[in-house]
Each structure stands twice: as structure tokens, then as C-alpha cells.
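ESCALATION

Customer reports they have been waiting on this structure for their group meeting. Please prioritize. Original submission:
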Amino acid sequence: MQHKKKTTIQAIFIVLAFFLLWEIGVHSLQIQPYILPAPSQVFGTLAVNATYFMQASFLTLSEALLGLLLGLICGFFLAVFLTLFPGWEDGVMTLAILVKSTPLVAIAPLLTLWLGFGTLPKILITALLTFFPVLVNMLSGFQKTDPALMDLFRAWYASPWEIFLHLRMRSAFPFLFAALKITAPLALIGAVVAEWTGASGGLGRVMWLAYANLNLPFLFAAIFILAVSGMLWYQLVLLLEKKIIFWHQNQTIS
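Update from on-call: job pushed to the front of the queue and completed.
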């Protein structure tokens, strides 16, 4: 407990030192705000335009969360299908890699043209960005079971579904959270990139307009919100991992 508290204090100190050096550097070198704003200008912009940034953040975070959930569901069930029907794996994975290899910046404008400037294309683009890590990690988790336990289940004449539910599913929990640690921050990136292609609101639009007008305090304010949101999402995944893996271990022991 003391080690964790010490680590937290160290992290806070490093962050505060970084912002302090940034502030001193901007003022001492007399850097103009349209090149690099000082942290005080960025935080002042956030405070003065709090409502504006809250509305934009709510829209972007909602798109990112829905896209993450959609990508998680699609990746999970596709991994289940390939585990139960391994003969389809080569063909499906080839198609999945093809979709993954296609640049997101090429897909996003097409979905915006086809589906409009609403939230649906942003959710789909985020799902496309996040589903592949979930698919790969879950498929690895389902396939990497204890050989001794697998032989035991087969000796009991367990069906493929029983093996999956009681053995493969349990072994895949760590892989699921490994995927979420990757995809949670990626979801925010996907939502913002999708908003760059055309949106009526959101942090992506805020960043695009700020860049076009050389309004860097607004741009850095949006970046700061996204960075903090990504960090909080990652910490939430870590918290859920500790809770669920602890419960899973207790269930296995009992």
C-alpha cells in the first residue's frame, strides 16, 4: 500500500514538473501562443469554455465508447466462432487482416459519404479500429488452454461447447483485458479521426477548427482532454481486471 502511494506521488510530481518546465520555457523563450501556448493558457481556455468542451467531450467519448463496445462484441463472437469452427480460421483471418491493413483515413471519408455526418460512421470507424486486437487476443486466449485440463475434459467426454464454456472461456480472461488495454485508448483515436472527416461536433471538430484558425490553446485543450480520458479509461480497465481476475481465481480455487 505504501509502495503504491509512493508511486502515485512520484507520478504526480513528474507531471507537475513537466507542466512547470513547459510554462517556464514558453515564457522565458517568449514563444507565441499560435506556436506553443503555455499550460496556463490551455487551462484558462478550458475554464472559460467549460460548457463548450464538455459538450464536445460527451459526444466524442460516447462515440468512442459505443464503437469500443461494438468492436469488442464483434471481435469476441468472431473469436468464439473460429474456436468452435477452426476450419474457417484461415479465410476469416485473411479477410480481417485485409480490413485491418486498410488505412483508417481511407475508410473514414467513405463511411461519412455513405452514412452522413452523424454518429453512426464514427461508431463504425471506431469499431473497425478496435475489433481486430480483440479478435486476435481472444482467439489466442481460447486456443491457449492447459493441455492437461483439455485431456481431462476429453476423458470426461465433454462436448466442444462444454469445453469452451468451462475451460477455454476461463483461460481467455487475461487475454480479454490485454486487448482492452490496447483498444480503450484506440477507441478515442478512432472517434477523433472519424470526426476529422466531417462532423457537426465533438473534440475532433474542435481540433480541426482550432488548427485551421491557428488557435492552439483550443487545440491543446482538446488534446489534454483526450489524453486524460485515455488515461482514465486505461486505469478503469486495470481496475476491472483486478476485480474480475481475482473473482475468477477464487472461483477456480473453490
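Sent to customer with the following note: The mean pLDDT is 86.
Escalation resolved.
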